Amino acid sequence: MSLLNIRNLTVEFATATGAFKAVDGVDVSVDKGEVLAIVGESGSGKSVSMLAVMGLLPDTATITADEMTFDGRDILRLTPAERRKLIGHEITMIFQEPVASLNPSFTVGFQIEEVLRLNLGMSRRDARARALDLFRSVGIPEPETKLNAYPHQMSGGQCQRVMIAMAIASNPRLLIADEPTTALDVTIQKQILDLLMSLQEDYGMALILITHDMGVVAETADRVVVQYKGRRMEEADVLSLFENPQHPYTRALLAALPENATGDRLPTVSEFLLAEDMK
Predict the structure, then answer these.
(1) Which residues have a Cβ under 8 Å from the Cβ of 259 and sit 6 or more positions away?
(2) How far is the C-alpha of 155 from the C-alpha of 176, rounded, in Å?
(3) 27: left (phi > 0), else alpha (psi -120 to 50), else beta?
(4) Is the dihedral of CA 7, 174, 139, 124 positive or negative?
(5) How many CB atoms lie within 10 A of CB 278?
(6) Given CA atoms 226, 179, 60, 119 in this order, what sign does their dihedral have?
(7) pLDDT at position 80, please?
(8) Cα–Cα distances in Å, from 119 out to 114, 159, 171?
(9) CA 135 to chain centre
């Protein structure tokens, strides 16, 4: 049995002009210790699907699914108290904008200590010691000093390391990373990805990596789900996906990789799909 299993997930948002379906019948599953990449361009419903799992969508969203279970537990039927024990403890998430995800009014040390006290019931002293260990484990320089820093006093890469430290603080069984390197420069992106993969192996976590970057997928994933306009287009192990993509949209994503350029510029996904239709 998969650790997380989602069947026929649909998410609709109420708007002034009617309902907008952001996710339409998506299936997603991930096994213990597996790295699953969910890939697709912006607007394909990748983040919304996982925010539905986390219970972080606004009240304007209507979520339905034939199944949404974590280790056999029905996520949609959990009581608020049961959900609080699961989300942020066994399932955690890293968001796209690390600086925006941290409260500017509190030190990063206070914020991670608060997570430890609320989720694990630690004393203030034990939470401080654990926060220091976590900062060291994610490679934050001068961790004793940085515990007392505010988010604006840290770089984007350091703030992302703080978010990762928060996410692994409770030894989660599933970590969801939503475009964790988007706001970072190329050098720091590689460092953050290497850190995530190292922690995933050390902790034995399942990892869902949401990305639009096929290069990241190739380097990190065991299995890949391709989404487009709220629907799942294709699912395969990473080697099969790159060597023998089955869906035109997957081929379009691969054709847009810089190393696959055959002319003066890369084709857009829309241009590639149009060319496929005309064959």
Answers:
(1) none
(2) 22
(3) beta
(4) positive
(5) 6
(6) positive
(7) 85
(8) 8, 21, 11
(9) 21
Rounded Cα distance, 267 and 270, in Å = 8
User: What secondary structure letter does DSSP report for 243?
Assistant: H
- Structural domain boundaries of the chain? 247-279
Q: How does DSSP assign 31-82, residue by residue?
A: -TT-EEEEE--TTSSHHHHHHHHHT-S-TTEEEE-SEEEETTEEGGG--HHH
Contacts of range 94-97, beta carbons closer than 8 Å, 24 or more positions apart: 94/160, 94/163, 94/164, 94/167, 94/175, 94/176, 94/177, 94/178, 94/180, 95/163, 95/178, 96/47, 96/178, 96/179, 96/180, 96/182, 96/183, 97/182, 97/183
The pTM of this model reads 0.90
The answer for 55, left when phi > 0, alpha when psi is -120 to 50, beta otherwise, is left
Give dist(CA 157, CA 163) in Å, integer.
10
Three-state DSSP at 266 gives coil
Q: In whole angstroms, what is the distance from residue 155 CA to residue 174 CA?
A: 27
CA distance 265 to 256: 9
Burial 205-218 (b: 16+ CB within 10 A, else e): bbbbbbbbbbebbb
* Among 21, 58, 53, CA closest to 36: 53
Write down the pLDDT at residue 278.
47
For each successive 10 residues of the chain (279 residues), what is the average pLDDT?
Answer: 94 90 96 96 92 93 96 92 89 88 94 90 93 94 94 92 93 94 82 92 94 89 95 95 91 77 63 59
Identity of the amino acid at 151: P
Packed helices 124-137 and 156-168: angle between N→C axes, nearest 10 degrees: 120
